[in-house]
Design goal:
This protein has 334 residues and is of the alpha/beta class. It has helices spanning 47-54, 81-90, 109-118, 126-139, 144-147, 157-168, 187-204, 215-221, 239-244, 249-257, 296-300, 317-325, and strands at residues 3-16, 19-32, 36-40, 62-71, 74-75, 92-95, 175-179, 207-212, 224-229, 232-238, 306-307, 313-314. The strands form two sheets. An eight-stranded mixed beta sheet has the order 6-7-8-3-9-10-12-11, sandwiched between helices. Strands 2-1-4-5 form a four-stranded antiparallel beta sheet. The structure holds adenosine-5'-triphosphate, iron/sulfur cluster (SF4) and magnesium ion. Residues 5-255 form the ABC transporter domain.
């Protein structure tokens, strides 16, 4: 399989009157074509910032300080705005967080499709627009006849989310990025959207990247999981390994927290402490104030994402030290 997105040392921050919020700090990872990748982590850990950095859609006070993002062989962060605009939607489509509110209440759904294609200099006559929009709405199991001429307020939250996915597919992108596609929806609607995304992936051979703070959703849908903590990518691994042999102490805490879903409450151990302020994050490993395995070195030096022999990637000094000291032994902490 071929790499479709490659991110190298992405650093993004926000300017605020108190200083700078270091929301994405040295993020590197690669995504293979036709796979599903989940980006997971607590609220305010920098998940949306990573995606907005990759797609160059940060808010006005956001800045990309360094890093490269490749779409196939094309380095996209250095592209002129016009060229980047063409790549967005046609190649890489993004459904931002809480974008249900971005649907214009005074416009029918058909007009949202019309605006989207016109923003990309595409002109279809009405018949073709209806035909294409209907095809995409059917893909998300909505009835075009009743939806196309409705206003957003006539639709439920789950229906609006499906309309947004259909809109994002109108120019048939190769990569679809969804920021929290299931949040703010009831459990049944969440399950419906997850199944729908599975079906789209199967039918369209599309590469999916989605953000969730719910690791159980990642388990359902993703081939690979990127775990983010306080603006750092701390583990990147197959979903199977993340769930059956989590490596990073933070990932272990996250997996433990979903024991609640299995109703084994007695075994839940929450991660002690709170996530840090990104205005003034902890030195060295940003997780060190909460980590039970922390050693002196962790306070001083930031652990880089390290490739283990089995292909796992983890940013933790324990694994690095262990591999260096004993080449034949794989580090296991429990
Ligand atoms: P959530 O799960 O709540 O959506 P997230 O993981 O997507 O959170 P981000 O939205 O990327 O987190 O935010 C990362 C950090 O950057 C947080 O500390 C947040 O408060 C801060 N932040 C995000 N947007 C801005 C902004 N426009 N200005 C200043 N700080 C911001
Ligand atoms: Fe814990 Fe140190 Fe690993 Fe950070 S680097 S997760 S503090 S053991
Ligand atoms: Mg977010």
């Amino acid at each position: 399989m071929k790499t479709i997105i490659k991110v190298e040392d992405l650093q993004a921050l926000y300017l605020v009157k108190e200083g700078t919020i270091k929301a994405a700090d040295g993020i590197s990872f690669s995504i293979l074509e036709n796979t599903v990748t989940a980006i997971v982590g607590e609220s305010a850990s920098g998940k949306s910032t990573i995606i907005e950095g990759i797609t160059k859609t940060l808010p006005p006070n956001g800045r990309i300080i360094s890093g490269k993002v490749y779409y196939n062989d094309l380095e996209i962060l250095t592209l002129k705005d016009e060229k980047l605009r063409q790549i967005r939607w046609k190649e890489i489509a993004l459904v931002p967080q809480a974008s249900q509110q971005s649907l214009n209440p005074t416009m029918k759904i058909i007009d949202h499709f019309k605006d989207t294609i016109e923003a990309h200099d595409i002109k279809w006559d009405k018949r073709k627009l209806i035909e294409k929009a209907s095809e995409k709405l059917e893909m998300v199991r909505l009835n075009p006849e009743s939806i196309l001429f409705s206003y957003p307020m006539q639709l439920s939250g789950g229906m609006k989310q499906r309309v947004l996915i259909a809109l994002s597919l109108i120019l048939e992108p190769k990569v679809l990025i969804l920021d929290e596609p299931t949040s703010a929806l009831d459990v049944l609607t969440q399950a419906y959207i997850i199944n729908l995304l599975k079906e789209l992936k199967r039918k369209l051979n599309i590469t999916l990247i989605f953000i969730t703070h719910d690791i159980a959703v990642a388990a359902e849908l993703a081939d690979n999981v990127a775990v983010v903590y306080a603006g750092n990518l701390v583990e990147y691994n197959s979903t199977n390994k993340i769930f059956n042999n989590p490596l990073h102490p933070y990932t272990k805490g996250l997996i433990n927290s979903i024991m609640a879903i299995n109703k084994d409450m007695s075994k839940i151990k929450s991660i002690p402490g709170n996530s840090p302020s990104l205005l003034n994050p902890p030195s060295g490993c940003r997780f060190h104030p909460r980590c039970v395995y922390s050693i002196e070195h962790c306070k001083k030096e930031k652990p880089l994402l390290h490739n283990l022999k089995d292909g796992s990637q983890v940013a933790c000094h324990l694994y690095y030290e262990e591999e260096r000291v004993n080449e034949t032994k794989t580090c296991r902490i429990s």
